[in-house]
Amino acid sequence: MEPAIGLTFHKPKPDAGHTLLVLRQERGWVQTEFFKAMTLTRELQLATEGKA
Prior knowledge:
Number of helices: 2
Shape: rod-shaped
Helix content: over 70%
Largest sheet: none
Structural class: mainly alpha
Order of helices and strands: HH
């Protein structure tokens, strides 16, 4: 997390291409985290069913 004060004003204004690239990277990160969460959930389900 970046500090909200100070750094924001010194950044150059990003062009549209850069903004799209950042959005694409963030979406990829979200998909990766979601997949990891789903995998972990499935592993927990299998472990629970195995013990029952």
